[in-house]
Specification:
This protein has about 110 residues and is of the alpha/beta class. The chain contains four helices and four strands, in the order E-H-E-H-E-H-E-H. It has one domain: Rossmann fold (3-Layer(aba) Sandwich). About 50% of the residues lie in helices and about 15% in strands. The chain has a four-stranded parallel β-sheet with strand order 3-2-1-4, with helices on both faces. The structure holds NADP nicotinamide-adenine-dinucleotide phosphate (NAP). The site of NADP nicotinamide-adenine-dinucleotide phosphate (NAP) has 17 residues, from helix 1.
Length: about 110
């Protein structure tokens, strides 16, 4: 297995499905994993199911919220190495998320 020790990974829509499986795999590979869920109830359930993952509230359709969430990750973890933009398919929101990530990576 490839090691992701000391890598900071952000996964959108990590509370279920492919995003959840990806978060578990990155955590098993040693990464510091930040997962997003989009409302308080799914956030609470995700925290209970996966306490080793850091959870952040984010709806990828909300450009302001994505910026705040990425800034929160960078402030806590010191940097952001990998974005897995899993939520919401190949939408315009995904493009905006990638732009926010690009800004954080250059900061
Ligand atoms: N499953 C497949 O066969 C397949 C095939 C090709 C591509 N994909 C793509 O792979 C990705 C994951 O698929 P999946 O089957 O695991 O999907 P899923 O079970 O629907 O999970 C998507 C995750 O994204 C979250 N999400 C959806 N809209 C969001 C938004 N606006 N903001 C933040 N989070 C949002 C969901 O949160 P909630 O729990 O709140 O809904 C959920 O945690 C998707 O982008 C999908 O298009 C999947």
């Amino acid at each position: 297995m490839i090691s992701f020790v000391n890598e900071v990974v952000l996964i959108t829509g990590a509370n279920s499905g492919i995003g959840e499986a990806t978060a578990i795999a990155f955590a098993a590979a040693g990464a510091s994993v930040y997962g997003t869920a989009r409302n308080e109830s799914t956030l609470a359930a995700a925290r209970a199911s996966h306490p080793r993952i850091h959870w952040v509230k984010m709806d990828v359709r909300d450009g302001g919220a994505t910026r705040v969430a990425v800034e929160q990750v960078v402030a806590e973890a010191g940097r952001l190495d990998v974005l897995v933009n899993n939520a919401a398919g190949a939408s315009a929101a995904s493009k905006s998320m990638a732009i926010v990530f690009g800004s954080a990576a250059r900061a």
